[in-house]
Every structure is written in structure tokens, then in C-alpha cells.
Design a protein that fits this description.
Largest sheet: 2 strands, antiparallel
Order of helices and strands: EEHHHHH
Helix content: 40-55%
Structural class: alpha+beta
Number of strands: 2
Number of domains: 2
Radius of gyration: 21 Å
């Protein structure tokens, strides 16, 4: 586990990206007032774990829809998820289509694309926590 005191934080702007035989090369523009001294002192070739959050102009995180939308699609194809929905009496038929309908009802959405909305994503996350708890214990929550 990496402690916060071991991290380097700064804001940067993506200015270029290219590919060579070893992978991708990401070029970032860092304002001189933002660049951490530790980063400047580290040797070229030092390894980093990189975590980034794209920001809107109002400094709020930019919503990434593919992650949760894709995860919901995968979840609706899971036989364990179908079993949980049967347990909840949300479905009687163990199919992806039935699971999608149940997910829409439980989360209060009309389409998985709605999961990009913070309120819907919060309800989805709560549902997943309940499902995972049931899946682990196979007992009512």
C-alpha cells in the first residue's frame, strides 16, 4: 500500500502522445509553479505508478462513462447476478434481458447510459455492494 506521503501530485495538460516499439509515450505540460521538486530530481527512467483524473473547466472530475456502463453490461451477463435477482424476486427468468430490466428498475434508469449521472451511479454502486455482500455470504443482507 502506498501512503500519501510517498505520492507526488501535480496538475498537467496532455500535449502529445505517440507510439514506438516499446509502447506509448505521453507528453505532459506542467506549469513551472506546479512541478514537484522530487519529480525534477528523480533520474530519467524512474518508474512511477500513474493515476490521473481529467478535470472539467470548473475543477470537477470529468465523468468517464465507459467504465460503469461496461461494468453494468458485464454484470447483467453474470449467472451469479441472475441468482441474486431471483433471490430478490426481481426476475423469474435467468437471462441477460431480464437482468437488464431488473437493473433499470433497481437503479431507476431507462438506459445504462444514464449511469453516467452521479445519482444513478451512486444507486448502482450501492446495488453492487449489496450484490457482492450476498455473493460472498449467500445470506440476506
Amino acid at each position: 500500500m502506498i501512503s500519501p506521503s510517498e505520492t507526488i501530485q501535480f496538475e498537467a495538460i496532455k500535449v502529445a502522445m505517440k507510439q514506438d516499439k516499446t509502447g506509448y509515450i505521453l507528453t505532459l505540460n506542467i506549469h513551472p509553479d506546479e512541478i514537484p521538486e522530487d519529480l525534477m530530481r528523480d533520474f530519467v527512467g524512474a518508474r512511477y505508478q500513474f493515476v490521473a483524473v481529467r478535470l472539467n473547466s470548473d475543477e470537477t472530475p470529468y465523468p468517464r462513462r465507459n467504465g460503469v456502463v461496461s461494468a453494468a453490461g458485464i454484470l447483467c451477463r453474470s449467472p451469479n447476478f441472475w441468482d441474486w435477482l431471483v433471490f430478490l424476486d426481481e426476475i423469474t427468468e435467468k437471462t441477460e434481458a431480464a437482468a437488464v430490466d431488473a437493473l433499470h428498475r433497481i437503479v431507476g434508469i431507462s438506459s445504462r447510459a444514464d449511469l453516467t449521472k452521479p445519482e444513478a451511479q451512486e444507486r448502482y454502486d450501492e446495488m453492487v455492494v449489496e450484490f457482492k455482500r450476498w455473493e460472498k455470504d449467500k445470506v440476506p443482507f
